[in-house]
Amino acid sequence: MRDLPTGTVTFLFTDIEGSTRLLHELGDRYVDVLGEHRRLLRQAFSRHGGVEIDTQGDAFFVSFADAREAAAAAVKAQAALASGPVRVRIGLHTGEPIVWAEGYAGADVHRGARIAAAAHGGQVVVSERTAALLKGRSLRSLGAHRLKDLSAPQTLFQLGDGEFPPLRTLHATNLPAQPSPLIGRERELEETTALLAGGGRLLTLTGPGGSGKTRLALQTAAELSEHFPDGVFWVPLAAVSEVDLVVPTTAATIGAKDGLQAHIESKRMLLLLDNFEQVLNAAPTVGNLLRECPNLNVLVTSRAALRLAGEHEYHVEPLPETDAIKLFTERARAIVPSFEPDQSVVEICRRLDRLPLAIELAAARVRVLSPPDLLARLGQRLPLLTGGPRDAPERQRTLRATIEWSYDLLDPDEQRLLARLAVFAGSFSLQAAEAVCDASLDVVEALVEQSLVRRWASGRLGMLETIREFTLERLAESGEGDAIARAHFDHFLALAEEEEYDSEGASAAWLDRLEADRDNLRAAMRGALDAGEPVRALQLACALGHFWVIRAHEEGYGWLTEALDRARDAPAKLRASGLMWAGSTIFFTRDLERAVALGEQALELFRRLDDKRNVALVLDRLAAPYGMLGDPEKARELAEESLALLRALGDGRASRYPLAKVAADEYRRGDRERGIALTEEALELAREAGDSWWAAGLLHELASMAWEQGDAARATALTRECVSLGHELRNAWTLVYGLGLLAVLAATEGAGARTGRLWGAVEALEESGEAKLDPESRSRYEEVVFTARDEELDAGRVEGRAMSLDQAVEVALADA
Questions:
Q1: Which domain holds residue 443?
Q2: Average pLDDT estimate for 117-134
Q3: Same domain for 251 and 311?
Q4: Number of neighbouring beta carbons within 10 Å of residue 479
Q5: 297, 315, 333 — which closes off a domain?
Q6: What is the 3-state secondary structure (H, E, C) of 323-364?
Q7: What does the longest C-alpha to C-alpha distance in the chain come to?
């Protein structure tokens, strides 16, 4: 794309009139005709200094630094097409766009596109601002018009003397003017208009307060105005609380003097019933109206569906992140024209659940707060997000009022449960809601229908954080907060303790359940610490020990050390367990000295308690860091002692841990056959125990041994099994070593591109901070991977670094 004109720019938009009809008429010739149309237009635009911003299908978006050149290009384009089958509508508008990396954005861009859409084939329509710059041009005033962007009426002009039908603008409607165009929502707008235009007569937009239901509904109605020659009418029901007032309010809005049904009869009309949630019992009236008026369509906004036959429910989700950032930026620039978004804006939008109302209220604060300052104050959203437009309904002037509006419409049981559910962080299962909050399925379903609780695609439930903040206040006011928090903690402690790792091994399903509830686990531990109960927090942190080791060692170390520091009076066994797990988690960050220090403290406590099994487990866990610190003799001594203790206790399965270390030491000392045999024995014990994580590590050990002995086929098969298990467990350490060894094996086969992809994936995983190869392994692997540096390898590395982890595993498990 060439350098874009900046400052005041004139936009030119084009669109082919009746393109679908032309396609049917011309058949295979249409492609050639479309190509010729593009050539002629581009020729006209380039001769007058136009910069092509975008081309989609049969439409152009071009910018000009000079309005007169834009007008000349439009006239020349229409003249070039006059003798052919293609008729193009053109719109011109002048304004100051927002310049993005990919082009222009902003209200003036939307305005230009809408002006073009209002025109007819062969016609050039010009905004009032552009017309003022075209002195000496033949312009005809077309009067004041409302465009489908729902802006206020504005005067439009026609360039030239041609005769055309009335502009395709809004008519016979009371849709309220909007201060700015709809930002984003292209997919939603396309889907909602298709549902109503395609035969659906009742469409209900549902979603939480502040999600933008009304704005989307208004734009949908505007887009469909030509389908309803007898009018498109907005019926605001926010102030109506009595069911009996719905019909007279609707009748008054559309000017029905002889009864609503009699007035509509067979008219082709669209009614937009806005904020129907507080009059849901009037739904049968809407159903009767639809049955008696065959050409009537009804568009509804409501927290809950009407539950009528033939109803299409469309749930309005928060904005996608890109659109949320764009909305914040455009609203901020209305206040501070020089505003530029930064990473703080991205995080602000995330923290506000990407809710349009919340974003608009936050953007209004840039008058006095920079984005970093605004982000810092978002710890409590509701008090900050006030001060909406004075002409907006009161409930939309603050986010609190919007949520409170929805909350007040609930019955007492629904209010009580909604407040209790605020105890959950992130998402939760129905079973958890039943156990912690004494929830009934019917009330949960009612809250989902009211859009205050969301059901995710996974089947889990959750609340937007903005709603949760409000309901947490209600929970505190209820006097139930402490009891519900304790029930929440107990539930997740039971979840963490339900699988005994050391006897059976942690299953991927158990790990995934904990992963899904990680936010709740964090909330439970933080709640216990804040409540002055660090012993309980330590109990839960220890119960999650193997989850931390396999999935989140650094986070686990943080929780464990904070709980240990604050729970000085914890029972000795619990404190010893905390020290053991803290040492195990810090080991994976390569802080080996700290791992040894914590392990030694745990060992001393367990010896004092005469807890032989845990003494054996800590001895095993000390062996690895001692070995890596350069004391293999000490490491072997610890492993041997651990192995003897476990065998004496009759715990053969747990002996898989020290046995693996003895095996590795035998192999290192030169007795390779014994080293391999003992490793295979440990692997068999791990498989018997269902311990996929330990099995994956041993598979990598055996694969490394096979590679060193020149058995590439066995090494590849073992490593693929290792990667498969690591991916199932989502254990980064297993994957970084497995992918690294597969890259080495690919390099020995001369597969440069495959080597590069796999090594690039290793580099990406290391950069993510989740896992890193130890220096010795990295040196050994790199020596082979980079033996033959070529273009295939380098290109593969770039590709591998860009892959997702799932894609990397797919490459790893695919045949070379």
A1: 411-422+430-473
A2: 94
A3: yes
A4: 8
A5: 315
A6: HHHHHHHHHHHCCCCCCCCCHHHHHHHHHCCCCHHHHHHHHH
A7: 104
Q: Are residues 662 and 626 in the same domain?
A: yes
d(CA 692, CA 667): 23
647 and 509 co-located in one domain: yes
Could you give the 3-state DSSP secondary structure of residue 75? Answer: helix
Same domain, 468 and 503: no
pLDDT value of residue 379 = 65
**Cα–Cα distance between 212 and 226 in angstroms, integer?**
24
415 neighbors 437 (Cβ within 8 angstroms):
no
3-state helix, strand, coil in the chain (%, to 5): 60, 10, 30
Residue pair 122/78 in contact by the 8 Å Cβ criterion: yes
Tokens of 352: 């506000």
**Cα–Cα distance between 206 and 799 in angstroms, integer?**
42
Please enumerate in sequence order all residues whose Cβ is within 8 A of that of 794, keeping only pairs 6 or more positions apart, or say none. 756
Question: Which are the contacts of 589, defined by CB distance < 8 A and separation ≥ 6?
Answer: 553, 554, 557
Which pLDDT belongs to residue 366?
84
Task: Report the DSSP beta bridge partners of residue 802.
Answer: none
Q: Do strands 88-95 and 124-127 pair parallel, antiparallel, or not at all (unpaired)?
A: parallel
Domain membership of residue 344 (yes or no) is: yes
- Show the tokens assigned to 429: 């299962």
Closest CA to 10 of 136, 113, 78, 96: 96
- SS3 for 76-133 is HHHHHHCCCCCCEEEEEEEECCEEECCEEECHHHHHHHHHHHHCCCCCEEEEHHHHCC
Indicate whether 697 belongs to any domain: no
Tell me how many domains the chain contains.
6
Same domain, 305 and 238: yes
Strands 103-105 and 59-64: unpaired
What are the counts of helices (DSSP H) followed by strands (DSSP E) for the chain?
A: 40, 17
- Whole-angstrom CA distances from 726 to 322, 698, 729, 731, 812 are 33, 12, 5, 5, 12
Question: Quick one: pLDDT at residue 380?
Answer: 63
pTM: 0.69
Strand-strand pairing, 296-301 and 202-206: parallel
C-alpha to C-alpha distance for 254 and 249, rounded to whole angstroms: 9
Task: Compute the Cα dihedral for 441, 442, 448, 451 and give only its sign.
Answer: negative
User: Does residue 542 share a domain with residue 462?
Assistant: no
Q: How far is C-alpha 99 from the geometric centre of its chain's CA atoms?
A: 25
Both 500 and 579 in a single domain? yes
- d(Cα 261, Cα 265) in Å, to the nearest integer? 6
- Supply 121's token pair: 């084939």
Q: Which residues pair with 270 in a beta bridge?
A: 232, 297
Of 275, 269, 279, residue with least CA distance to 300:
275
Rounded to a whole number of angstroms, the distance between the first and last alpha carbons of the chain is 40
- In this structure, the strands spanning 461-462 and 427-428 are antiparallel
Domain CATH number, residue 132: 3.30.70.1230
Buried b / exposed e along 111-130 (16+ C-beta atoms within 10 A): bbbbbbbbbbbbbbbbbebb
**3-class SS of residue 315:** strand
One-letter amino acid for residue 602 of the chain: A
Side chain identity at residue 130, one-letter code: T
Measured on CA atoms in the order 269, 270, 276, 280, is the torsion positive or negative? positive
Assess contact for 145 and 154: CB atoms under 8 A: yes
Asked if residue 437 has pLDDT above 90, the reply is yes
Cβ pair 738, 726 in contact under 8 A:
yes
pLDDT score for 356: 87
Residues ≥6 apart with Cβ < 8 Å to 494: none
Question: pLDDT (tens digit, 9 = 90+) per residue, 491-516?
Answer: 999 999 986 544 456 678 888 899 88
- Claim to verify: residue 138 and residue 205 sit in the same structural domain: no
Q: How far is CA 725 from CA 488, 588, 733, 762, 805, in A?
A: 32, 19, 12, 17, 14
